Amino acid sequence: MAGGGGGGGGDELRLLGFWGSPFVLRARLALSFKGLSYEYVEEDLTHKSELLLRSNPVHSKVPVLIHNGKPICETQIIVQYLDEVYGASNGPSLLPVDPYDRAMARFWAAYIDDKLLSSLMMMSRGKTEEEKAEGRKRSSAAVETLERAVKECSKGKPFFGGDSVGYVDVVLGGFIPWVNLIDRLTGSRQFDVGKAPLLAAWLQRFGSLHAAKVVMPDMERLVELSEMSQA
Amino acid sequence: MAGGGGGGGGDELRLLGFWGSPFVLRARLALSFKGLSYEYVEEDLTHKSELLLRSNPVHSKVPVLIHNGKPICETQIIVQYLDEVYGASNGPSLLPVDPYDRAMARFWAAYIDDKLLSSLMMMSRGKTEEEKAEGRKRSSAAVETLERAVKECSKGKPFFGGDSVGYVDVVLGGFIPWVNLIDRLTGSRQFDVGKAPLLAAWLQRFGSLHAAKVVMPDMERLVELSEMSQA
Q: How far is CA A222 from CA A25, A29, A229, in A?
C-alpha cells in the first residue's frame, strides 16, 4: 500500500507498475499529489502477470490503473482520468479550468513525450557517437523550447500549473530521475541553469516536494538498472 | 468560409489547413459535426504563411485553430478544445460524459494515431517489398484490434460515440479518404467486411453522413497528390 489520506470513499485503486518506469512514476506522482490511497502492484516485466495481460490486452504495458475493477491504460490518460474523477476534492486540480489553458497544458505534455523523450533516449541509448551527438543537439533544442513553456504556463508562478502542481508538472516530473541519471552518467547538466534558468529552478523545486520525493525511485538502483540494460 | 450554422456568438474561428492532410480533415470534421462556422485558410506547405509560423512556432504544422486570435495546435487537442468550449450547445458532445468512457475514447484515439497510422504509412510508403508486407501485416492486426474497439465503445449503437458521432469517430474519420485511397491503389480492402464487419459498416455509415461528406477531399485529387509524393 502507498499514498496518503483522502481517497474517493470506498473506491479501490490499484496501480500495476514497474519501479524503473518514468511512465509509471507519472501515474504515482498524480496519485501522490491528489493524496489518493492505492495498492501498488510491482510487475516482473519478464514474466508479466495474468492481471496485467488481461487488463491491458492491447499493449501489455505498465502502468495500468485499476479503479473498482476497471482498467485504465496509458500514462497521460491515467493522469487525466484521476483528475476528472477526483476533481478538486483530492489535492489540486491538475488540468487547468480554462479550456485554452487546458489545450496548452496538453500541447506541452505531448511535446515532452514526443521531443524531449526521444532526444534523451537518442542521447543515452544511441548506437554510434554521431547518434548520441545528434541526441544532445535535439535535447538541447527541446530544453530551450521547454524553457519558453515554463514562462507561458506558469506566468511567473512556481509551477507549470501556477501556484500548485499541474498536469505538465506531473508529466515532466516523471522524467526527473532519468534527467538526473543522464546528468550523472554524462557529467553534463540537461536543465542547465545558464541556458534554462526557469527549468533548472523548477527541477529543484518540484523534486524537493514531499509528494514527489516519496514516490521517486532510488538513484543507485537506477544506475544499476541502466548498466544492466546497456550490458 | 465553410461550416454550418450555430457558432459561439461573436466568436471568430479560423482554421489553417492543407486540403490533403488527414489531421486537418479531423479538425474540419469536428467543426462540421458541431455545426460551427469558421474561416478556412488553405496553407501552401512549401511556403508557409507568416501567420502559420507565428501561430505554431514549435512545430510549424497544420492544423492550427485560431479562436479569437489565440492559436491551438495539434489535431486531437483541437478536437478536445472545440468540444470543451462548445459543449453540447453545438452539435453532440464528442467526448463521453463518464470519465471512464472518456478514458476509453482517448485510449482508442491514441491507438489509431499510433498503430493504425504507422502501419498504413509503412504499407503505402514502405521502401522495400518486405517493408510493405510488414505494413500489411501490422495494418491487418490493427484493424482486428479496432474491430474490438467498435464493439466496446459503441455498445451495439451505430457510432463509437453511441447514437451520435463522438471523439473516436472523428479521429478515425479523418483517415477514411486515405483508407479508401489505399484500397484503390492496392486493390485490397482495409476494413474488410469479412474480417471486420462492424468497422466496414461503420466506414460506410460515417462516410455517408452529410456533415462528413461536405469536408471530405476529392478522391481524384488525392490520387494525384499520392502520385506526386511518390514521384
A: 13, 18, 10
